[in-house]
Design brief:
alpha/beta; Rossmann fold; 7-stranded mixed sheet; 7 strands; globular; binds S-adenosylmethionine
């Protein structure tokens, strides 16, 4: 403290300035609407009914996506795509790509700009979010990118060479149906690219990771509640480390590549064993 005012430590000032893979300012902004949902979350935990995507999107607006924006800008092209060189090559040549749960579409705008020969479409269940995504893509004049309000389980069949899902699979209430939908949406030779948090899902192990309190806290208030609709088991942000590999195998996918991202995510490429 100097002159009655707080002075940030050198180690923290970079975080507060933003532009780093975890934007602490965006996380702090997200806590405000998440906190206002506490009574609603308490009801959802008591009745086991979860909370619909639209209710979350109405409360959170684009705050949740501002948390991931810096990560996509830092790592999507140079690490997640570059770590799968055959994908980078196909994207440069020109392929059809879908993203499920793109939110306002930050990741797709980066891809559409970087790979003008490829065609991109984002499918999100939330109509208001899709409107935001359409407007943001138009602002950037990206003619190779469009969005539709469609559930990941109901995409066009055999229409894509690559289907992506970034930080969203653990939000869906029917992961089996979405995985089957993504598989059916792939053309022969096509693949999935899934990014999920790298936490193990074992609280004792994850306690050593300083980002775990953020992930576990947001999971309880948001991700898990969105995935846990009435009659569903629910997954949430800490589930992929315990269940994703088995679910991919059970749905006829074989893992063909993996990037352990510096952003604390695992980026898995998976290919259908038969189509
Ligand atoms: C946490 S946001 C992630 C957005 C974006 N991928 C990002 O990282 O910024 C999860 C998104 O998944 C969408 N979503 C949830 N269930 C879905 C489903 N079954 N099909 C398509 N989108 C879904 C939500 O509406 C929301 O926009």
């Amino acid at each position: 403290m100097t002159d009655g005012r707080y002075e940030p430590l050198d180690e923290t000032v970079g975080l507060l300035r933003g532009g780093v893979p975890i934007d602490v300012r965006a996380v702090a902004e997200l806590l405000v609407p998440l906190g206002s949902l506490l009574p609603r979350v308490a009801t959802a935990i008591r009745d086991g009914g979860g909370i619909e995507s639209a209710e979350f999107q109405a409360a959170l607006g684009m705050t949740s996506e501002r948390v991931n924006g810096p990560m996509y800008r830092a790592f999507l092209l140079d690490e997640w795509i570059a770590g799968h060189p055959e994908l980078a090559e196909a994207l440069a040549h020109g392929i059809d790509v879908a993203e499920v749960g793109p939110g306002s579409g930050t990741a797709l705008r980066i891809l559409a700009r970087a790979f003008p020969a490829s065609r991109f479409v984002g499918y999100d269940v939330d109509v208001a979010t899709v409107r935001e995504a359409v407007a943001a893509a138009a602002d950037e004049g990206l003619a190779n990118l469009r969005f539709e309000a469609v559930d990941g389980g109901a995409m066009p069949r055999a229409a894509f060479d690559l289907v992506c899902m970034f930080d969203a699979f653990h939000h869906v209430s029917d992961p089996s149906a979405v995985l089957d939908g993504m598989r059916a949406a792939l053309r022969p030779g096509g693949s999935l690219l899934l990014a999920e948090s790298a936490v193990s899902g074992d609280p004792t192990t994850d306690a050593a990771d300083p980002t775990s309190p953020i992930i576990y806290g947001c999971d309880l208030l948001y991700c898990y509640q969105e995935s846990k609709l009435a009659g569903r088991t629910g997954t949430g942000a800490t589930w992929p480390g315990r269940g994703l590999e088995r679910m991919l195998a059970d749905h006829g996918f074989s893992e063909t590549g993996r990037v352990a991202s510096q952003a604390g995510y695992v980026v898995i490429r998976a290919t259908p064993l038969r189509n």
